[in-house]
Amino acid sequence: MHIPDGYLSPQTYIPLYAVFAGFLAAALRKIRQTLSAKNIPYLGMASAFSFLIMMFNVPIPGGTTGHAVGASIVSLVLGPWTAVAAVSVALIIQAFLFGDGGITAIGANCVNMGVIMSFVTILVFKLIRGKAAGGWRVYLAAFLSGYIALVVAATVAGIEFGIQPLIASANGKPLYAPYPLSVAVPAMALEHMMLFGIVEGLVTVLVLMYFLKNDRENVYALKDVK
Prior knowledge:
Elements: H1 10-34, H2 40-54, E1 58-60, E2 64-66, H3 71-78, H4 80-98, H5 106-129, H6 136-162, H7 164-167, E3 169-170, E4 173-174, H8 181-214
Antiparallel strand pairs: 1-2, 3-4
C-alpha cells in the first residue's frame, strides 16, 4: 500500500502532508499526557513490529504494493494516537532509508496506514465487542477491526490514485497516476479484501490473545471493562 513518488499530484500530497502533520502533533501531545512509563518501551517495539511486517510487500496493479501493516494491533493495545506515531515513524524510515514509499507521498502513506487504520480499528472493535470482556466476541472484534481497517485504508489509497486523472491532466493525458477511479479503487480494495486484510486480521487477533493472557490490564481497548 506504499504509494511511490510520481503517483500523486501536489494538489493531493501537499494537503495530505498538512493533515498528517496535524495528526502527528496531536499524537505526540497525547502520548506525553497519557502513555505510562511502563508502556514507553512498547512504543519502540510497536514501531519496529510495524516496520517489519510492512517489509513483506507483494506488488499489485496500480504501481503500489499490498501488505499487512500492524497498525490495528498497536491501536488496540496502546491506543490510536500511539499507533499513529509508531506506524508513521516506521513509514518515514522505510521511505528515506529503503525507498519503500515515496518522499512526496509520506503524508499520504501516514494518513492512510497510520491515521485511518488506527481510528477505524478502534471504532470497529468497540462496535463489535459491545460490552464483552473476553471470549469469542472480543476475538471476532479484533479480527474484523484489523480486516476492515486495512481494507478502508487501501480503498482510500485507491481513491487518491483514481482522482489524479481528474485533477492533474494536460491535454487529456494524466500527469500522475493514470488509472481512473473505476480501475484504481477495485484494484486496491479487492486485493486487500481477499488477502492482506485477512493477514492483518489474523495478526491482530493473535497478538491481542497474547496480551490478554500476559498483560491484560494495559490493553487500551479493554480499559473500560470493569
